[in-house]
C-alpha cells in the first residue's frame, strides 16, 4: 500500500497583486501554486479561488520494502508590504491506491483536484477505468498519466501528459499494461472552471459583463471503478465468430448451387429438362409456350402492334452486317443502335400497354457494354475515394495515440477494445461482413454471367427471345459497392467524428441508387440512365450531404434551397419515368415541367379523363407525396443528422419502388419462385432486427465528446461487440439478401416470351 500526502492551504486575502506563493520541495520534484489561485476561461474571464488543496507526488510509489520517511519542505512567501493571514494543513491520504473491482467515491473541485494510484494485478493485462457522476455539470476531465512527478492536475496543464477525456456523467478509459513499463499509473480528476468544453454555458452566478468571479461552488461527486478488460482469448473468439458467421453464407451458397446442379442433371437424364429451372440461366432450347394466361388483362393488344406493325423475331440479335458494334460513340451516346426502328421508337415507347420486347430492341452487346461501365467506373471511384480516406484515418489514429486526446474520436468507450495502434478494433472487425458478402455476391453474379455466356455461345434462340435481358454490369457494381461500404465503414470507425462522417454513408447512397437503377433496368433495359449521369447524380447527393451537415443545423436558407431542389428533382424524374425517357432535359430545360403541367391540365382538369399510364401515375403520385413529405419535414424540424435524413429519403424511395414492382408482378399473374420468396422474407426479418440495433444510439458526433459519452453502453455480444457492431453484422446480411432479391426476382420469366412480359 502506497501512502500519499495532501496539502491544504487557505488565505483570506483577495489582493491579486500580492498573492501568497506556496512551494513544496520533495526528493524528486517541486510543486508550486499561488493563493488566490486563478483560472482563465473564454473571453478573458477569470475565476479565483482562495482555498487550494493538492496531492503531493509520492517519492517512491514503486517501492515495496515497506514504509519510509519522506522529507518535505513547504515554503510560503509573498511580496506584499503588509501581513497576510493564511492556513496550511498537511494530511495523510488513507485511500490513495485504487483496488480492482472496488468502487471509490470522492469529491473534487477546480482548485482541489484529485489523483490516485493503480497497480496492475499479476493476471490482468488490460483494465477499464469507469467514472460516473450523478450530476452533469461541472465539466470534468479524467486523465491517465505515467508515474512521473510532477503530476499535471490543473485545468491548464492536465492535457500535457498521458491520456485524457472530458466528462459530464460518464467516462471510460481502457488502459493496457504494455503501455506502462512500471505496471502502474495515476488516475487524475480535474474539474474545469467552465462548462463550454462539455456543451454547457457560462456559470449562472456570472451576470452582465463581470469577468472576475470568486470561489464558485463547482464541487463534483465522482465514483471510480477499475475493472479488468477482456483477455486475448476473447479477441480470438470474436474473430472466429465474425469470419465463420459470414463464411457460412459461402457454404449455404455452395449447397444451394450443388442441389440445383443435381436437380438439373436428374431432369436432364429423365428428359424433362425445361429451358429454365429457377436459376435465371437458360439450360435448353426445347420448344416452350408462354406462361402468361390467355385472359391476362394487363395489356390486351395484338402481338404485331408490339413491334410497331412489323413482326419482331429476335429483338436482341446482332446488328446488321457491316455495323460497328464496338464503336465508343455508340456505347456512350443516347443514340439507338438500330437505325431501322428510329422512326417508330417514340411511338412504341408511348403506347398505352408496353411489353418488354418494346424496350429491349437495341443490340444486346452494345447495351451490355453500356452497363459494364457501371462496374468499371465504380472500381475507379472506389480506388480514388478509398486511398485518401485510409491515409486520413491513419493520421487521425496517430494523432489520438500521440496526443492522448480521446475527445477527437467518438467511440463507445465502454466497449472499445484496442488492438495494436487501433483504439476500437471491434468496430472495425464487425464490418468484415460487408466485404465477405459483397465478394460472395460477385461470385454468384459471375456464375450466372458465365452460364449465360455459354448459352449465348450455343446460339440458343430462347436465350435471346425469352425472359428478362441478362445484363450483369449493375449487379457487379452493387457487389463492389457492398464491399466498399465495409471498407469505408471500417475506416470511419477507426476514428468516428464530425470530419469523416461521409465515409460511412457515401457508398450507402450509391447502393440505394444502384438498386433503384437495377430495378428500373429490369424491364426498361434500353432507356435506363447511363453510368456517367448516375454517378454524377450520386456526387451531387454527397455534396448536398456535406453541405447539410455544415450549414443545416442553424441555416434556414439551406433547408429552403434543399427542399426546392428535392421537390423539383422529384418532378423532373417523375416526368422522365412517366414518358419512358422520351423527354430530354438537355433538349428543353423547362419543357419537362411545361409538359407535366399540360398533361395535368388536359387529363385531370379540362377533361377529367383517366391517365394514359395509370399504374405509372399511381406510383409517381405516391412517390411524390412521400418525397414532398420528407421536404416538409426537413423544413419544419430541420433534423440535426442530415446524413441519415438523406439516406432515409433514398431507402424510402427504394422500398416504395420495390413494393410497387412486386405488387405489379403479382398483379400480372407472374409468380415468385421459392428462392426469391425466401430472400424477400429473410430481407424483411433481418432488416427489422438490424434497424432495432441501429437506433440504439451509443455515441453522437453532433454533440460534445462528453455528452456523447453519456450514451455509451457495455458490450452485448461475446463481451466484445456492442449494439452498433450487431447492426454492422445484420445490415451486411440484410443488404446481401436484398441483392439476391433483385437478382432472382424474375427467374420465373425465363420461360416467357418478351412480347408477353408487361412493362411497369
TrEMBL record:
Q: Where is the composition biased (Low complexity)?
A: 304-314
Its placement in the membrane is given as: Multi-pass membrane protein
Q: Which domain of life is it from?
A: Eukaryota
Location comes to: Membrane
Compositional bias (Polar residues): 281-295
Q: Name one GO molecular function term.
A: RNA transmembrane transporter activity
Per the record, which residues fall in region Disordered? 270-336
Output the InterPro entries linked to this UniProt entry: SID1_TM_fam (IPR025958)
> What is one cellular component GO term in this UniProt entry?
lysosome
Biased segments, Acidic residues type: 327-336
Name where it mostly resides.
membrane
Residues crossing the lipid bilayer are 238-262, 374-394, 428-446, 474-495, 501-520, 532-551, 557-579, 617-636, 642-663, 675-695, 726-745
UniProt keywords (A-Z) are: Glycoprotein, Membrane, Signal, Transmembrane, Transmembrane helix
Family, per the entry?
Answer: Belongs to the SID1 family.
Tell me the protein's name.
SIDT1 protein
Amino acid at each position: 500500500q502506497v501512502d500519499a500526502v495532501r496539502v491544504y492551504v487557505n488565505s483570506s486575502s483577495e489582493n491579486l497583486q500580492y498573492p501568497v506563493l506556496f512551494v513544496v520541495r520533495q526528493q524528486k520534484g517541486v510543486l508550486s501554486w499561488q493563493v488566490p489561485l486563478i483560472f482563465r476561461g473564454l473571453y478573458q474571464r477569470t475565476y479565483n479561488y482562495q482555498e487550494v488543496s493538492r496531492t503531493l507526488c509520492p517519492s517512491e510509489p514503486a517501492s515495496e520494502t515497506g514504509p519510509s520517511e519522506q522529507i518535505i519542505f513547504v515554503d510560503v512567501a509573498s511580496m506584499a508590504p503588509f501581513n497576510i493571514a493564511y492556513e496550511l494543513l498537511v494530511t495523510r491520504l488513507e485511500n490513495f491506491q485504487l483496488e480492482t473491482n472496488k468502487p471509490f467515491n470522492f469529491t473534487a473541485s477546480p482548485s482541489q483536484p484529485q489523483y490516485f494510484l493503480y497497480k496492475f494485478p499479476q493476471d490482468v493485462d488490460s483494465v477499464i477505468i469507469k467514472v460516473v457522476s450523478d450530476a452533469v455539470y461541472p465539466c470534468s476531465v479524467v486523465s491517465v498519466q505515467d508515474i512521473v512527478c510532477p503530476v499535471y492536475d490543473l485545468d491548464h496543464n492536465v492535457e500535457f501528459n498521458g491520456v485524457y477525456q472530458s466528462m459530464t456523467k460518464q467516462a471510460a478509459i481502457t488502459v493496457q499494461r504494455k503501455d506502462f513499463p512500471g505496471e502502474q499509473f495515476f488516475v487524475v480528476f480535474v474539474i474545469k472552471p467552465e462548462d463550454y468544453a462539455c456543451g454547457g454555458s457560462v456559470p449562472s452566478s456570472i451576470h452582465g459583463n463581470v469577468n472576475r468571479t470568486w470561489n464558485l461552488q463547482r464541487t463534483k461527486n465522482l465514483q471510480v471503478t477499475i475493472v479488468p478488460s477482456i483477455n486475448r482469448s476473447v479477441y480470438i473468439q470474436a474473430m472466429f465468430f465474425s469470419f465463420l458467421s459470414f463464411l457460412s453464407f459461402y457454404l449455404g451458397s455452395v449447397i444451394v448451387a450443388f442441389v440445383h446442379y443435381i436437380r438439373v442433371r436428374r431432369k436432364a437424364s429423365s428428359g424433362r429438362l425445361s429451358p429454365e429451372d429457377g436459376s435465371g440461366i437458360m439450360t435448353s432450347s426445347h420448344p416452350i409456350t408462354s406462361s402468361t394466361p390467355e385472359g391476362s388483362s394487363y395489356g390486351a393488344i395484338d402481338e404485331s402492334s408490339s413491334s410497331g406493325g412489323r413482326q419482331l423475331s429476335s429483338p436482341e440479335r446482332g446488328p446488321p452486317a457491316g455495323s460497328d458494334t464496338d464503336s465508343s460513340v455508340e456505347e456512350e451516346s443516347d443514340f439507338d443502335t438500330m437505325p431501322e426502328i428510329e422512326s417508330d421508337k417514340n411511338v412504341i415507347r408511348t403506347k398505352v400497354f408496353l411489353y418488354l420486347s418494346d424496350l429491349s430492341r437495341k443490340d444486346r452487346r452494345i447495351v451490355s457494354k453500356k452497363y459494364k461501365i457501371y462496374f468499371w467506373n465504380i472500381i475507379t471511384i472506389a480506388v480514388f475515394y478509398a486511398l485518401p480516406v485510409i491515409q486520413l484515418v491513419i493520421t487521425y489514429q496517430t494523432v489520438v495515440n500521440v496526443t492522448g486526446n480521446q475527445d477527437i474520436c467518438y467511440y463507445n468507450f465502454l466497449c472499445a477494445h484496442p488492438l495494436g495502434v487501433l483504439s476500437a478494433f471491434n468496430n472495425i472487425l464487425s464490418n468484415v461482413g460487408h466485404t465477405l458478402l459483397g465478394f460472395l455476391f460477385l461470385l454468384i453474379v459471375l456464375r450466372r454471367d458465365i452460364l449465360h455466356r455459354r448459352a449465348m455461345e450455343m446460339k440458343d434462340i430462347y436465350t435471346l427471345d425469352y425472359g428478362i435481358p441478362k445484363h450483369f454490369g449493375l449487379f457487379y457494381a452493387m457487389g463492389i459497392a457492398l464491399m466498399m461500404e465495409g471498407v469505408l465503414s471500417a475506416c470511419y470507425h477507426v476514428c468516428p467524428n464530425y470530419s469523416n462522417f461521409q465515409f460511412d454513408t457515401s457508398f450507402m447512397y450509391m447502393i440505394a441508387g444502384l438498386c433503384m437503377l437495377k430495378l428500373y433496368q429490369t424491364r426498361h433495359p434500353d432507356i435506363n440512365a447511363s453510368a456517367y449521369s448516375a454517378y454524377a447524380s450520386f456526387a451531387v447527393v454527397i455534396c448536398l450531404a456535406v453541405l447539410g451537415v455544415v450549414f443545416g443545423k442553424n441555416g434556414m436558407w439551406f433547408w429552403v434551397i434543399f427542399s426546392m431542389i428535392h421537390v423539383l428533382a422529384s418532378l423532373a424524374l417523375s416526368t422522365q419515368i412517366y414518358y419512358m425517357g422520351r423527354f430530354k432535359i438537355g433538349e428543353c430545360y423547362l419543357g419537362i415541367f411545361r409538359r407535366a403541367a399540360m398533361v395535368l391540365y388536359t387529363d385531370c382538369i379540362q377533361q377529367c379523363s383517366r391517365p394514359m399510364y395509370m399504374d405509372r401515375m399511381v406510383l409517381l403520385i405516391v412517390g411524390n407525396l412521400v418525397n414532398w413529405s420528407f421536404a416538409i419535414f426537413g423544413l419544419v424540424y430541420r433534423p440535426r443528422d442530415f446524413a441519415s435524413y438523406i439516406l432515409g429519403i433514398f431507402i424510402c424511395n427504394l422500398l416504395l419502388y420495390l413494393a410497387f414492382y412486386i405488387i405489379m408482378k403479382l398483379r400480372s399473374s407472374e409468380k415468385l419462385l421459392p428462392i426469391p420468396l425466401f430472400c424477400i422474407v429473410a430481407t424483411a426479418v433481418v432488416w427489422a432486427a438490424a434497424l432495432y440495433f441501429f437506433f440504439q444510439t451509443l455515441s453522437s458526433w453532433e454533440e460534445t465528446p462528453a455528452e456523447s459519452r453519456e450514451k455509451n453502453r457495455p458490450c452485448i455480444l461475446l463481451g466484445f461487440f456492442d449494439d452498433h457492431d450487431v447492426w454492422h453484422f445484420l445490415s451486411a446480411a440484410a443488404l446481401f439478401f436484398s441483392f439476391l432479391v433483385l437478382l432472382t426476382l424474375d427467374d420465373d420469366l425465363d420461360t416467357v416470351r418478351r412480347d408477353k412480359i408487361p412493362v411497369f
